[in-house]
Amino acid sequence: MRYEIMALRGAEGVVALTIDAESESDVTAQMRMQGYTVLSAKPKKSFALLLPLPKTGFPLVLFNQELLALLTAGLTLMESLETLAEKEHRDESRKILEQIIARLYEGHPFSYALQQFPDHFPSLYVANIKASEKTGNIPESLERFIAYQLQLDLVKRHVISASIYPLLLLFVGLLVTLFLLAYVVPRFSRIYAEINADLPLFSRILMRWGQFMEAHGGLVIILGIMTLVMLAYVLTRPDCKRWLVQTLWNIPNLGARLRIYQLARFYRALGMLLRGGIAIIPALQMVTDLLQSGLRGQLNHATVSIQEGMSISRAMEEHQLSTPVAGRMLRVGERTGQMGEMMERIASFHDEETSRWVERFTKLFEPLLMVFIGLMVGCIVVLMYLPIFELAGSIQ
After folding, report:
1. Whole-angstrom Cα distance, residue 207 to residue 188?
2. How far is CA 249 from the centre of its chain?
């Protein structure tokens, strides 16, 4: 948020400034560091208060890639962070980096500084950095996190790209249908009303709709817009999101695929933490939030079983947190002692399986959607022109 400030500093006297800050206390702290005494601070009024813009957030992957490049080039951690802060042109990101640097100068470890910004640095990332501080190999932990995040982004991009064409097709089909129902059908209904034609049943129903739109079209459009706004608001509510997610999970085939996707993400994060040197029990507790609420209880039971001495593979199988492939690979990981690497291989196997399923589904769904939209538009057109065909037949 931007604040308008009246401040005092030495010979400069009273000056007016505008800065970005999270709260008034943050404003005071920033100005004190620059030698100012704050006289007044108030949020700057703007249209953003009425229509808030989405936050871009801290570019975590880019930050890790650049930090890794600088550390590999031989710069120290402090030099690398200062370099990134100097080149950063986004005010919010630069402020975060400056506050991290300030905490490092105070003598705190890097992981502690990152932990002060939970909205930008997830607990998995902080735990990975904290484990690497014990071994002194921060670049390796950065490489692991970059690979982890890029793989997650790759799966998400594949799902999103596969969904774009069906959604675009559905959107265009709905626009054509609305155009026919809201513009073309009312004009046909006026023509048929003037000639007093005897229409088939379904054509009469369609023409009645056209007459209703002719008389109350503006009201229908306003109600439609209000319905869409209310629907968008309801879909943003947490309770509605939970209900929607639970409904998707209850669909047999889709629910199974969502479960595999969640388990793949769970194993990838767990494998990254184990390879970073974190013990299995703390690692399991850190990745709990990655699972859907229905699977978290099963993970808690599995964690208790592992604490009691049960093997990881058996605990995961008994509490339904593995697949046949995952179960076998976990047992191999226990024999070889490469559990972290094996979990990442499990995640890669199931990510590829999910990508193939999405590709097959879209190839089947797209033609079905085209047929459905074609039939819907075709039925409307046929019902509009059917009386004309019948009239031409009677004339002959």
Report:
1. 7
2. 18
The three-class DSSP label of residue 22 is: coil
Query: Residues 237-262: pLDDT tens digits?
Result: 777 777 777 787 778 777 788 888 88
Assess whether pLDDT exceeds 60 at residue 375: yes
Residue 49: predicted pLDDT? 37
- Is the pLDDT reported for residue 309 higher than 60? yes
* Measured distance CA(252)–CA(48) in Å, rounded: 43
Q: What are the beta bridge partners of residue 2?
A: 20
Distance CA 245, CA 393 (A): 54
Among 44, 165, 29, which residue's Cα sits nearest to residue 99? 29
Q: How far apart are CA 137 and CA 14, in angstroms?
A: 49
Which candidate, 20, 29, 87, places its Cα nearest to that of 59? Answer: 87
Q: Which token pair is 64?
A: 């890790």
CATH number, domain 2-49: 3.10.20
Q: How far is the C-alpha of 128 from the C-alpha of 142, rounded, in Å?
A: 8
pLDDT in tens, 147-181: 877 777 777 777 777 778 778 888 888 888 778 77
Taking each helix axis as running N to C, give the angle between helix 138-179 and helix 252-275, from 0 to 180 degrees, rounded to the nearest 10.
160
Listed residue (39, 2, 7) closest to 23, CA to CA: 2
- Joined tokens for residue 124: 């998995």
CATH of 144-396, one of 1.20.81.30, 3.30.450.40, 2.40.30.10, 3.40.50.2300: 1.20.81.30
Spatial distance between the Cα atoms of 127 and 209, rounded to a whole number of angstroms: 62
Give the DSSP letter of residue 57. Answer: -
Q: What is the pLDDT of residues 340-371, one digit of tens each?
A: 889 888 888 888 888 888 888 878 887 888 88
Distance CA 144, CA 268 (A): 10
pLDDT of 22:
59
Q: Nearest Cα to 281, choosing from 261, 309, 262?
A: 309
Question: pLDDT-derived band of residue 190, with 50, 70 and 90 as boundaries?
Answer: confident
> Domains of the chain: which residue ranges?
2-49, 60-121, 144-396
